[in-house]
Structures are given as structure tokens and as C-alpha cells.
Design brief:
- The protein is α+β, with helices and mostly antiparallel strands.
- Helices cover about 20% and strands about 45% of the residues.
- It contains 3 helices and 10 strands.
- The strands form 2 sheets. Strands 4, 5, 6, 7, 8, 9 and 10 form a 7-stranded mixed β-sheet that branches.
- Strand 2 and strand 3 form a beta hairpin.
Length: about 180
């Protein structure tokens, strides 16, 4: 059986409005002390917006760290005053200019478990209605509406490369029984 690693100490080294860079001291399986550097967040949400004709509403945006354009489902950090579902609804309106009549949670995942303790909760939004978008001043989006097969082609061509979108799509496929055991 794998040994649970016990935290001995924790400190925040750097903090901003979105995340904290933390340093923990913990006990190794052999009893010695180790340290772990990681990013702590309050979590994130991703919203798979599905139109009445079963197409996905995605966003295209420039990602500074990778110096390239990325096609993604809408999403962002969980805001404490909104909670998980409220944050999902806010991100949907902010990034796509839609609100939804139906919002269903389908799962969650950790986007990079050696670097962050973040859990991303994935929702499917249906019964979409256009509303004025509320983009953050630091973000710029183009809307892409794609069928499932068009998403597969974007993945094959390397245009859809965002790991969180790929993970959310896998959860969607499992939830809708596209992946058979």
C-alpha cells in the first residue's frame, strides 16, 4: 500500500489575485524530510457550451506563455463570492456572450498534478441564449462554433492543443457514452 505523505509545514512564497506559489515541507516514505513547490488555486471551471444543433461553442484566444493562438472551451478561476456553478455561468457569459438554461456538472480533473493542486470542474451548458458578453479587460476572444467531428480535425491538425480542453472533451465523451468500455 502506498504511504500517505504528511505535510509538516506550509508557507506562501508569492501571491497574486489568482493563485499562490507555496512551499511545503513533507515527510518522504523513508521518514526523511522533503520539500514541494506548487501552485495553489481555489479551483477552476470549464464550460462545454452545446448549441441546439449539437455544436460546441469554443473561444479562440492568444496564449502568451505559448506564444500562439489557442482554441478552448470557456473557463476560468473559481471566484469565492460566486462558487463553482456561479463561476461557470459567469465565465460562459464573459467569454462567449451566452447564458444557459441548463448547466450540468459532468466531472473534474487536475490539469497538472505535479505542479498544482487545482481541480477543474467541467460543466455542460445547454439551452443557450445570447446576452451581452462581459470580457475581462485583459482578455480578447473570437468565438468558434464546431461540430464534434470538426473538433477532432482541429485536434489532429494541432490547432486544438489546450490540455484542459482536451481533458474536458474526454469527460464529455465519457459522459455522453461516446467512449465505450
Amino acid at each position: 500500500m502506498l504511504k500517505v505523505l504528511h505535510q509538516l509545514r506550509s508557507s506562501v512564497l508569492i501571491q497574486n489575485p489568482w493563485w499562490q506559489y507555496r512551499l511545503d515541507a513533507y515527510e518522504h516514505p523513508d521518514g526523511s524530510e522533503g520539500e514541494f513547490h506548487y501552485v495553489h488555486t481555489p479551483g477552476s471551471v470549464f464550460v462545454i457550451a452545446v448549441t441546439d444543433d449539437q455544436k460546441f461553442v469554443l473561444t479562440k484566444q492568444y496564449r502568451y506563455l505559448n506564444r500562439r493562438t489557442s482554441i478552448e472551451f470557456c473557463g476560468g478561476g473559481v471566484k469565492a463570492h460566486l462558487g463553482i456553478e456561479g463561476s461557470a455561468r459567469a465565465e460562459l457569459q464573459e467569454e462567449t456572450g451566452f447564458e444557459c438554461g441548463s448547466l450540468t456538472q459532468i466531472g473534474s480533473f487536475n490539469p497538472m498534478n505535479g505542479v498544482t493542486d487545482e481541480l477543474c470542474t467541467v460543466f455542460v451548458a445547454r439551452d443557450l441564449k445570447p446576452v451581452p458578453p462581459k470580457p475581462d479587460t485583459t482578455e480578447e476572444f473570437e468565438i468558434c462554433v464546431c461540430s464534434r467531428s470538426e473538433c477532432v480535425e482541429l485536434i489532429r491538425s494541432g490547432e486544438l492543443w489546450d490540455g484542459m480542453t482536451l481533458a474536458a472533451l474526454a469527460l464529455f465523451d465519457a459522459h455522453t457514452n461516446r467512449i465505450q468500455p
